[in-house]
Amino acid sequence: MAKPISLEKILFSQGFGTRRFCSDLVYADLVKVNGVLAEDPEERIPTEGLMLNVEGKDWEFHEKAYIAFNKPPNYERSHKTTHHPSVYSLLPKPFVGRGLQCVGRLDFDITGLILISDDGQFIHKMTTPKKNIGKVYEITTPEPITQKQIDRLLNGVVLDDDPKPCFATACKQLGENTLAMIIVEDRYHQVKRMMAAVGNHVAKLHRTEIGQYLMPEDLDEGEWRWLYPEDLQKLSKSVDAPSA
Ligand code: URA
C-alpha cells in the first residue's frame, strides 16, 4: 500500500497549482477528501482509491495520468500552438498543470483516438516501433483505392527523407475510397506521405485503435476518459488486423 502523503502535495501532484496555492485551496474550504471537507493541508492521506473534490468538481487521484481522448479536427497537439487551438483547451486545467503530453505525432486535422500521459516510459513504449504496437487509421481518399496501391503499402514505400521503407502491417479496404491501415512507426505525416507515395491522397484521417484498445463507442468527439490497468494491457498488445 502506498504511503500516505500530505494533502497539499497530493493536490500539487494532480496539477492544481503551486504548493502554496494548493494550501490556500484547503484554507478556503474548497477541497473535500472522500466527501469530507478538508481543514489541514499538512494532513497525511492514503492515496489508494482517493476521491478529491476541488472547487466543486470531483477529481479521481491518479499517481500517473493515462488518458484516452477523442480528438476533433482543427486542434493542435502542442501546448503553445501556432494556427489552431490546443487540444488542452478541451481538457481539465490540472492536466496542463501536471505537464501532460500527447503520445506520438498528430496533425491538426487528424481525428479520433489519442493518448495523453505524464509517464515518459509509457509514451516511449507506445511510440517506439520496437514494441510493435499498431495504430489503426481509417483513411478517406479523393481517388478510389486500388489493390495495386494496397499491395505497395504492404510491401513498403520509400518516403523522401529516409531510404528505409515504411510498411503497412495490415490493410483492409472498407469502401471504394476508404481504407483501414495499421502502422507501427510514428514518422512525420507518415500516413499522408505513404498514401501520396502510392499515388493517392488523404482527404480524412481518423484513428480508431491503438494496440488492442478501441476507441470507446460512447466517447464523443472532444471527450476524454481515464485509462485503467486493463486498458493499458490492451494498449500494449500488438494488433494483426483492423477490427473495423
Ligand atoms: N500520419 C499522418 O499523416 N498524420 C498523423 O497525424 C498521424 C499519422
Describe this structure in words.
Strand 13 and strand 14 form a beta hairpin. Helices cover 22% and strands 29% of the residues. Strands 7, 8, 9, 10, 13, 14, 15, 16 and 17 form a nine-stranded mixed β-sheet that branches. The mean pLDDT is 94. It is of the alpha+beta class. The protein has two domains: 56 residues, Structural Genomics Hypothetical 15.5 Kd Protein In mrcA-pckA Intergenic Region, Chain A, CATH 3.10.290; 181 residues, Pseudouridine synthase (2-Layer Sandwich), CATH 3.30.2350. Bound molecules: uracil. The site of uracil (URA) has 9 residues, from helix 6. Uracil binds next to helix 6.
Task: Looking at this protein, list some descriptive labels.
244 residues; four-stranded antiparallel sheet; Pseudouridine synthase; 17 strands; Structural Genomics Hypothetical 15.5 Kd Protein In mrcA-pckA Intergenic Region, Chain A
CATH class membership of the largest domain: Alpha Beta
Could you tell me the CATH topology label of the largest domain.
Answer: Pseudouridine synthase
Query: In terms of structural class, how would the helical and strand content be classed?
Result: alpha+beta
How many beta-strand elements? 17
Can you name the CATH architecture of the largest domain? 2-Layer Sandwich
| Strand composition percent | 25-35%
Rg to the nearest angstrom?
A: 21 Å
Mean pLDDT over the residues: 94
Secondary-structure element order, N to C: EHHEEEEEEHEEHEHEEEEHEEEH
Principal-axis shape equals elongated
Number of domains: 2
The small-molecule ligands in this entry are: uracil
Q: What is the count of DSSP helices, taking H or I runs of 4+ residues?
A: 7
Oligomer: single chain
